[in-house]
Amino acid sequence: MGVDVVGFLGLGNMGIGLASNLQRFLKEQGTDAKFYGKLHIWNRTTAKAAPLQELGASLNPSVADLARVCNICFAMLFDDAALESTFNDYLKTAQTGTVFINCATVDPALASKLAERGRSRSCAFLSSPVFGRPDAAAAQQCLVVASGAAAAMEQVRPLLQAMGRGVIELGADPAAAAAVKLIGNFLVVSQVELLAEALNLGDRSGVPRDVVVSIVEKLFPGAIIPGYAKRLAADAFDMSKDPGFSVTGGLTVVRLMLALGERCGAALPAAKLACGHLEAVEAEGMGGLDLGALALAVRKEAPR
Ligand SMILES: NC(=O)c1ccc[n+]([C@@H]2O[C@H](COP(=O)([O-])OP(=O)(O)OC[C@H]3O[C@@H](n4cnc5c(N)ncnc54)[C@H](OP(=O)(O)O)[C@@H]3O)[C@@H](O)[C@H]2O)c1
Prior knowledge:
- The chain is of the alpha/beta class.
- The chain folds into two domains: 6-172, 3-Layer(aba) Sandwich (Rossmann fold), CATH 3.40.50.720; 178-300, N-(1-d-carboxylethyl)-l-norvaline Dehydrogenase, domain 2, CATH 1.10.1040.10.
- The chain has 13 helices and nine strands.
- α1 (13-28) links the parallel β1 (6-9) and β2.
- α3 (63-69) crosses α4.
- The radius of gyration is 20 Å and the shape is globular.
- The structure holds NADP nicotinamide-adenine-dinucleotide phosphate.
């Protein structure tokens, strides 16, 4: 049996960490290596590849070039449009029997559409979106949810496991993991909305922010909710200091969950609230701040 050659497209805030985990795994394999030891990488902005090249990854000049040499390829791109156009480029020169794994948060309907398109070109399309912010991705602490054709899943399982702290497999339908990811994101963004409202209530009723944060830590122990509480309490929204997920990125994902709810008849009033606040912040030219900045819009709102 031949050795699989692995590629990675998209080295943004999340992609750089996930790809680094894969490169380390490929390098550390034993003598019975199933995978070639160097990750092949591509990013639209070439300069972002430098840290991975230092880890031993090999930079490819184009998606088409990468597709010629890899039979397994991961992608962590910004949104549905970026994924679809890049996947189309990949298919043009893809090897027969290749496996393409999307890690981005996308519309489950797009996952189904691209899986269908891939099938007609002998390419298996898997979904494996991840939970966790860029610091978790870099520390191999993301939770991976995955779905798609069983044989392809079997082939890439060690790679999925190497990307994060665990993998939840959800069957053969690539839309399944994409939908689960949107449900998880709905829970997180709704919590951020609630934290923004709680801190604003504290500000206006004279309860110091550190007291609100300590209540949050006691009531909801863990990393995610107290983490956002601290970020909101400190107005720590500058992504150049602490890369997270942008207001614009958050808005893209909230719109996807609202569209899914619309299609399947599920009302999501909490997501609509968060969406309105994210839109207000983006409209003021602050789409590049961390999505916790929706708190800025919450604070400006008059009681209704
Ligand atoms: N950030 C988080 O906390 C987080 C957590 C879990 C999941 N996610 C999901 O992860 C995905 C990526 O998020 P991110 O935070 O890593 O975003 P990001 O830092 O903005 O990175 C986006 C990546 O997509 C590339 N890209 C954008 N438009 C493109 C296009 N038209 N053609 C080709 N490449 C394009 C960018 O290339 P350039 O470098 O050239 O701009 C970059 O590599 C999103 O689906 C997001 O929902 C994010």
